[in-house]
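We emphasize that the prediction below concerns an isolated chain of 358 residues; any contacts that depend on oligomerization or on bound cofactors are therefore not represented. The input was used exactly as deposited, without trimming of termini.
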Amino acid sequence: MRTFTQVRVVGAGLIGTSMALGLKGAGYQIAIEDEDPRAEEIAQSLIGQVGEGPNPEVVVIATPISSISTLVKGFATRYPQAIVMDIGGLKSEVVAEIEQFPDISSRFCATHPMAGREISGALAARGDLFEGRIWIYTPTINSSELAVASALEIINALGGKKVILSAKEHDQAIAGISHLPQIMSSLLSATLIDISDRDIGLAGQGLKDVSRLAASNSELWSELLHANSSAVVEFLNILSKHLEDLSTSLQNDDLRKTQEILALGRENHARIPGKHGGKKRDYWYLPIIIADKPGQLAKIFDACALVAANVEDLTIEHTPGQDSGLVTLALSKVDSEKVFAQLIKDGWRVHPPRESIG
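Result of the prediction step, given as a token string:
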């Protein structure tokens, strides 16, 4: 049930525009703005906005963290009846600064959706970006019930899974689960600088998976890492110790120690949530050989629809110049068997379902 209708999003990047699209689809009246005229034009065209839009009941600040506090204070003053929330990647400094202004902080609730893509900007936006994703919220010491309820209404409308954390808890957790993976991906890609284009062309899915985050916005991430430097450095020190141990074990040809290090990683990997941040599921994988021509994926999904099978994920392997590629579908065991039978019936080259993607 909606308790307000008018929402203004400030910031037409990936997250802001995705929120605007999702909220519009949920029936809210949305306006979006950005200091970059081109970004604003794209986002407004995506949501069909004409003109300035009415005064908002809720303002969402979806900008880089360096500008959040200033914008929260500015829009809270500009719209004195509105609730204000942010979606910034760090909380301690913003919350501490806003709490110095009791009237404003009573109408403010800090939030952070754990969703994103390695590509940025309004054109990368998706209205379903937040479906099933963890969405952290951090009320100030003065946040009113209305401020918190309004933020939670938006989170629920976009399909987020709400989790409350203090600002300090949030920033410490984010250093490990978000900032460290970005660092690892970026440093891995930087380490490959001396590898020739020929050898890079030999890369399989493993390198692509681990280096995916390196395509993220370097200016944005530099700002985040420096703003959360103390927590990030704690994790980097732990990582450095693991790297040193591995280097030593390899130099000493200590196979047992190397196995211990890798086994610890394998064991701890089981704690990482699966699809959409939920509990990890046991998928079965269905490898399908496809011809390099238009319409192949559409035909595969038609076959899935025919047997009412839900595809949880997919990967595509294709080397330029080859006349075929490999699509691997992730499905439940039952669905994988149904799709396998249907594709065999339709004449596809398909391998039996397996429990491992490898």
